[in-house]
Amino acid sequence: EAQVTQNPRYLITVTGKKLTVTCSQNMNHEYMSWYRQDPGLGLRQIYYSMNVEVTDKGDVPEGYKVSRKEKRNFPLILESPSPNQTSLYFCASSFAGHGGANVLTFGAGSRLTVL
Amino acid sequence: EDQVTQSPEALRLQEGESSSLNCSYTVSGLRGLFWYRQDPGKGPEFLFTLYSAGEEKEKERLKATLTKKESFLHITAPKPEDSATYLCAVSGAGSYQLTFGKGTKLSVIP
Q1: What are phi and psi of A81, to 5 degrees?
Q2: What is the pLDDT of residue A101?
Q3: Residue A69 region, left (φ>0) first, then alpha (ψ -120 to 50), else beta?
Q4: B95 and chain A in contact, CB less than 8 A
Q5: At a CB cut-off of 8 Å and minimum separation 6, what does B1 contact?
Q6: To the nearest 10°, the Cα dihedral for A111, A114, B4, B7?
Q7: Closest by CA position to A113, among listed A38, A4, A57
Q8: Distance CA A50, CA A68 (A)
Q9: Which of A48, B2, B31, B41 can pair with A33 through a Cys bridge, CB separation 3.0 to 4.6 Å?
Q10: Cα–Cα distance measured from residue B90 to residue B26, given in angstroms and rounded to the nearest whole number
Q11: Residues paired with residue A73 on neighbouring β-strands, in sequence order
């Protein structure tokens, strides 16, 4: 089954404790992206990657890091989480047709709470 | 900067009561306009892509249309299972980003 898999789905952590949210896709997509979704703010892009070793900032990159060492994986790293990073996170992927983002397939989401 | 505004924020319909959701956008060179459906606690699911003004797409009770400034998602004779948040997004020329609106939460009452 074609899918984007995120882990963990739920996480409660404390301020300053480094964490990684993994994302893996099995569709051979070039483009991958991370979004956060907050009430009243909608979906906002954190980082995206056009292909292996190519990443770029989205609209809200502060406090996050990403890497793209393999085509299928795009982990999101919070080096020192803070309470304002409490949110619902989505990973998404697509083919990089038309020179940019195409139809995105989203993961099921990772709900993160930072105390 | 690309911008997407969706209205209304929330909409309650009786089962069978047709209506439309609006998505107004500003973008430098529209590459594509996307509609997604999102159920509570789940990731958005793709519905339609529209590329140029005048284009229309249909799927079951949903029909999406596009003009140069806005898109409409028409819902004909909705059922309770159509209840969800509907998201609109645009991709502009020269950008690899997808800009999303805040969504319209649709509730269809039996």
Answers
A1: -60, 145
A2: 55
A3: alpha
A4: yes
A5: none
A6: 70
A7: A38
A8: 9
A9: A48
A10: 9
A11: A24
The reply to whether A115 touches chain B by the CB within 8 Å rule is no
Q: How far from B93 is each of A2, A68, B51, B105, CA to CA, in Å? A: 28, 24, 12, 29
pLDDT tens digits, residue range B56-90?
999 999 999 999 999 999 999 999 999 999 999 99
A11-35 b/e (C-beta count within 10 Å ≥ 16 → b): bebeeeeebebebbbeeebbbbbbb
Q: Mutate which of A32, A106, A111 to disrupt the B interface (most B C-beta within 10 Å)? A: A106
**Model pLDDT for residues A27-83, shown as the tens digit of each residue:** 999 999 999 999 989 999 999 999 999 999 999 999 999 999 999 999 999 999 999
The residue written with tokens 């990657």 in the block is: A49
Contact: A41, B45; criterion CB under 8 Å: no
Q: Which two tokens stand for residue B46?
A: 């793709």
Residue B50 pLDDT greater than 60, yes or no:
yes
Both tokens of A15, joined, read 């301020």
Fill in the DSSP letter of residue A98.
G
Tokens representing A78? Answer: 């919070």
Kindly state the helix (H) or strand (E) to which residue A31 belongs, with its residue range: strand A31-38
